[in-house]
Design a protein that fits this description.
The chain has seven helices and 23 strands. By secondary structure, it is α+β, with helices and mostly antiparallel strands. The strands form eight sheets. It has a six-stranded antiparallel barrel. It has a four-stranded antiparallel sheet with strand order 2-11-13-12. A three-stranded mixed sheet has the order 16-15-23, covered by helices on one side. A hairpin with a 4-residue loop joins β15 (256-260) and β16 (265-268). α1 (4-14) runs parallel beside α5. Mean pLDDT is 78; it is low at 1-23, 284-290 and 313-317.
Length: 368
């Protein structure tokens, strides 16, 4: 590999020459991420105080409250179980962004884990936030912003708007420890595609090599591209700031039809094709009407009146609609044909499933 200075100079000079790519190209930063540069989840447990009688009714909240008082030198008499509806036990969670440094702040979400009716008007008492390794990475405290509202009458009637048992504290946690990252270590960086694809992986490697020279980048698999990079952290930032703005034309997506049977949503990809096939769409209605008929004998016949059931059957067959697809019919052809017969979402689902079973639908059918 050439010297770092020469590589960076060449990179900066040539990046403008390659800034315009295919019409449908996307920036590398929009389709890939750097391995190791990620968010980390934090979680904690604490108490929300200052509620207006909408807190927990007891349980483990009382024990937590006693432990907190003990830390401040307040000792309750033996057997005392404090009951206060102005306190609620809560769970706290947040996401620590990559490269977050001590002293920076992050937003937190506070959720009731007891039987508190509402957290509106409460304040979170100092609580540590831990990572998956059990280490404390942030400290949370502040006044809650609750978007929900709840009210209850004496007769038991109640009304609830949104969720009053969950609140947010903007900038409610202060970072106390930075998360180690491999960003500035080693001679290589790895870019991971958001949507794995062998063709896109190859194109990204070729795009980088066209800019920096052969063998700078290589595709590891359908997801990862290995890239040689400077060791100095400052130079590596400049290096990546140029690479992430390179434009690459992603490969066309897999032909796929997605059906949500609960909502009736149907998504058909642009590469979906069908083989030559004919489809009929119509309805058949059978109506059976039950009635009774009375048989009245003549005046001098000596007979008796007889009541007998009478059934009427009507068959209404709507004129079915039939449409055919030529070889290689596209998404537009399918949609236009289905719209012409006025098929409802349920009918369209049945048509697509039948096409898949017959082998005429050249796409993956996903039902969620």
């Amino acid at each position: 590999m050439k010297t770092t200075t020469n590589t960076l100079a060449r990179l900066l000079l040539l990046c403008f020459c390659f800034s315009s790519a295919t019409v449908y190209a996307e920036r590398l930063k929009d389709i890939a991420s750097i391995a190791g540069v990620r968010t980390n989840q934090l979680v904690g447990y604490g108490l929300v105080v200052g509620l207006s009688g909408t807190g927990d009714k007891g349980g483990f909240t009382s024990q937590t409250f006693k432990n907190m008082l003990g830390q401040f030198g307040v000792t309750l008499p033996a057997g005392t179980n404090p009951q206060s509806k102005n306190i609620a036990a809560v769970s706290i969670h947040a996401e620590l962004p990559p490269f977050a440094k001590p002293g920076q702040t992050v937003d937190i979400t506070v959720s009731s884990i007891g039987d508190a009716a509402s957290l509106r008007g409460g304040s979170l008492i100092l609580a540590p936030l831990k990572g998956a390794d059990g280490q404390v990475y942030a400290i949370a405290q502040g006044n809650l912003v609750v978007g929900g509202l709840g009210a209850e009458g004496r007769d038991g009637s109640r009304i609830t708007v949104n969720v009053p048992s969950v609140g947010r504290i903007p900038n409610g946690a202060t970072v106390e420890r930075a998360v180690p990252t491999p960003f500035a270590s080693g001679d290589h960086l790895v870019m991971n595609l958001n949507i794995p694809d062998f063709t896109t992986s190859r194109r990204v490697a070729e795009r980088i090599n066209a800019l920096l020279g052969p063998e700078v980048a290589s595709s590891v698999d359908a997801t990862s591209i290995r890239i040689r990079a400077p060791r100095d952290a400052g130079q590596r930032v400049t290096y990546l700031s140029v690479l992430e703005n390179l434009e690459v034309a992603p490969a066309e997506e897999v032909a796929r039809v997605i059906i949500n049977s609960r909502t009736g949503t149907i998504i058909i990809g642009q590469n979906v094709r069908v083989s030559p096939v004919a489809i009929t769409h119509g309805g058949l209605t059978v109506s059976i009407l039950e009635d009774v008929a009375a048989s009245q004998p003549g005046a001098l016949s000596g007979g008796t009146t007889v009541v007998a059931p009478r059934s009427g059957i009507e068959v209404d067959a709507d004129s079915g609609h039939m449409f055919s697809f030529a070889p290689g019919a596209s998404l537009n052809d399918i949609v236009e044909a289905v719209n012409q017969v006025g098929a409802a979402p349920g009918d369209l689902m049945a048509i697509l499933e039948a096409l898949k079973q017959s082998g005429a639908l050249k796409a993956e059918l996903v039902v969620i």
